[in-house]
Amino acid sequence: MIKDFFILLKQELTVTIILFILLFIKIGVKEMPARIVLNIINALLFLNLLAGFLFIRAGSLFGDMFQTSELISFEKNLLNLGTLIISLQSYHWLKNHKHALEFYMLMLSTLLGMFFMISSNNLLMLYLGLELSTIPLAALANFDLEKRRSSEAAFKMIISSAFSSGLLLFGISLVYGIHGSLNFAILAQGYSASPLGLFSFILLLAGLGFKISAVPFHLWTADVYEGAPVPVTSYLSVISKGAIFFVLVSLLYNVFGNISDTWYHMVFVLSVLTMIVGNLFALRQQNMKRFLAYSSIAQVGFILIGISGQSSAGSSSVIFFILIYLFSNLGAFGIVSLVSSVTGKEDIDDFRGFYQTNPLLSWVLAISLFSLAGIPPTAGFFGKFFLLLAGAGKGNYIWITIAALNMVLSLYYYLRVIRALFMEKQEQPIPKINAGWSPKIAMIICVGGIIVTGLFSGGYTYIHSFFIK
Amino acid sequence: MNLLLLIILPLVTALAILPLKGLKQVRMIAFIGSLAQLLLSTGLLIAYWKERSSGNMAAMLFEDHYTWYKALLINFHIGVDGISISMILLTAIVVLAGVLVSWKQEKWNKEFFFLLILLSLGAYGFFISLDLFTLFFFLELAVIPKFLLIGIWGSGKKEYSAMKLALMLMGGSALVFVGLAGIYFHTDINGQHSFDLMQIAGTRLPLEVQKIFFPFAFIGFGVFTALFPFHTWVPDGHSSAPTAASMFLAGISMKLGGYGCLRVATFLMPDAAHEYAWIIILLSTIAIIYGALATMMQTDLKYINAYSSVSHVGFVILGIGMLTKTSIAGSVMQMVSHGLITALFFAAIGMIYDRTHTRDMARLGGLLKIMPFISTVFVIAGLASLGLPGFSGFVAEMTIFMGSWQHADNLYRIATILACASIVVTAVYILRAAGKAIMGPVVNTAYESLGDARWNEKLAAGILLLGIVVIGVAPFWLSELIGPGTENLIQKIAAVVK
């Protein structure tokens, strides 16, 4: 019994242990140089990632509140990988920051929250994990302590997430009112499209819609992304969004499978709105972070197409896409983060002539953007193709056509950045940046991931194998 | 013969270029690589003839299957018939010539040759694919290198043109995607969907499905091949591109579209092709006439060739729309022929522009006295383009007209007559351009000190010219080469028409 506890909870436990180690370093050790601390943390996160691949078992704990399986462990490993990449990328920013350790403590507690959320088998547990992952994030958004924009971002974030949590909680209470239970398995059997059931479902979907910033729940996104420090922005847009998508996939298929005909249409409307609004707003952005924020909103629209597909093809295409999205978006954010922390420049126009001074970094950014745009041979092409293919399986070709044309629209703004990098010139381009080894490792992981994940089918096959009974 | 070599060879060449430093090394590797491509393609041609003469009448030769995404039934299925081989040969010739004319490419030469070779990789992959997924993969693969080549090394309003080209081509491939997804989900081979071209061709999609998805696929590929009214990227894109990229764009890239229209849209959905034939013929006739008339108004040599490409590629679509065996064979021949001629034309224009730094007809003149070789090449390219017997253009266009005339229907006859009439317009603008720029007195005395073609340029022009003349003088080998392939296509169509 106690052995079960340790094995099933191992990923949560390792993160907790790292949290405590950081706490001890903070209290116990006087004045350690920032570089060493950061390297220790990166090493710990790497071990954490490795440990995730050992002793994988399925089972449930705490009176069926908590469950885990191979798929869930894999999803947690993805989040671990993303966290490691972000940590490597934020080296330059954190080495001069006074509160680097607090940054990690907050980040790891949100990660812990996401783990519990993904593993939840009960709406209450889901809510608990979600809150644990959200509240520290607001503090993280405020981590550029001197900047007013940063605190503004944090404030916006806390208000909007409090509101969305309220919606979610309301929905959960109604669900409890109908069924007398919040356990997923019980809900899955009896969930029906009764008016109250639908109403509570809509509340739940809206609550989660806020977190993935689907239109019309997206209004907080651009401001928060712009105000928060770049590593936090990338964490928000990749890790936190990815975790919610993992939950959404399992909720929609496993818990609300009974009313899938109903939610199909809701997802359709959400997806079309999200793609179009995200793309149209991204067209006009000047700030790199805002631009990536809107582009990531548009990506959400594409992911929702995959969700609408048949269960095995749909789920695996979504998880596969998130894996790719992790590499591509973090690749792009990595360069923006590096440039921002070294020179303080964040506008697209600042990147003019970047290729002349930093050819390698330019290629990394270009490859990441191509992957986000879905251009072969990058993995993004495969990810988007499979998402749309999963969606097309339902026969809704109007949706697919809208999505395909939206990909063209999105290509415009990605190419705008490419144009600035390679074709335009300015008097004083960003000088040559010495990345240092830890951001370089992050870049290698991202570019490697972008190239390998698509061209070799192993990743997809592995993910798909979870969904074939 | 392992067809994968056609992908591996450019890939290795491109990767080998990356660590090099200095123009001399880079261009030497690019030259060796593209020469090897040409040798390989010639080897493929010979191997193909051997197989055919030994009585192997399979639809596709040298087939290979590699499982790629098993869960989604996506395979890497490759194979060639005569049509693809003629396209592969065309690609190899144009790429080699393109490398040769870019011999003095100073700015960022490594990236330039890398992207150029990458483009050829996309084209080879496209022509050997027998799986719709891989076909689409290679189709899109070739878009971004074009964008970068035009935007970085181009001239004029290059950034605008590059963006326009990339967006329009991606728009085309978005439509192609919807078409392919429709085909995929409506094929039922033992209860499974399929992307496999030959498998799908073995079944017959329901007419109402074809009617929905044929326009997506045909228009999508049509954007690549300048189908009216989606041709607007052609003039800007071709004119702003650096010489080698123009050659590639007009010579090969537009043929990706024609090949796709033929091999995917028409071959897989012949019922709908028959149903919509009148629209295709209408649009292609408009493209032919409009392209020719628009060319009359141009003064920039590159714009002249670009608009005339719209007109000449219109013949390809016309031939496909007519759906007779002769006209489709003519289409394929026209693709090869136009690819060579237009590449030669662009090469000649590029050589002139390199020396005089202008492409404006009015500011040129009397070039024959200054650079006799280049001028001769220019005139020959022009004459081949207007369909002078003895060159490939005559053979191809003649075949299309003969095929088209086989239709007794009035609409088809009128379209054929109009298309024939456009040749007169072609003669007017070609002769006018040659007369103004090449003949006559020397307009600008500063040009008198300019030199003639160097060895690399002579070689490039020679290779292309050889292809044009060989097809023009001895067309039967080409028609024999593409014969079995068109036979295959036409059987599928004939089943519908009867």
Overview of this structure, please?
The complex is a heterodimer of chains A (469) and B (498). Chain A is mainly alpha-helical. Chain A has 21 helices and two strands. Chain A has a two-stranded antiparallel sheet with strand order 1-2. Chain A starts with a helix and ends with a helix. The mean pLDDT of chain A is 89. Chain B has 498 residues and is mainly alpha-helical. Chain B is 75% helix and 3% strand. Chain B is built from 20 helices and two strands. Chain B has helices at residues 5-17, 23-53, 82-101, 109-128, 132-141, 143-153, 158-186, 197-202, 207-224, 233-240, 243-268, 270-296, 301-322, 325-356, 367-370, 372-385, 392-405, 410-437, 455-473, 476-497; strands spanning 61-69, 74-80. The longest helix of chain B is centred in the C-terminal third of the chain and has 32 residues, at 325-356. The chains are: A mainly alpha (469), B mainly alpha (498). Chain A binds chain B through residues 313, 316, 370, 375-377, 381, 385-386, 388-389, 392-393, 395, 397, 400-401, 404-405, 407-408, 411-412, 415, 418-419, 422-424, 457, 460-461, 464, and chain B through 68-72, 133, 136-138, 140-141, 143-144, 147-148, 151-152, 158-159, 162-163, 166-167, 170-171, 174-175, 177-178, 181-182, 184-185, 212, 216.
Task: Put the structure in a nutshell.
The complex is a heterodimer of chains A (about 475) and B (about 500). Chain A has about 475 residues and is an all-alpha fold. Chain A is built from 21 helices and two strands.
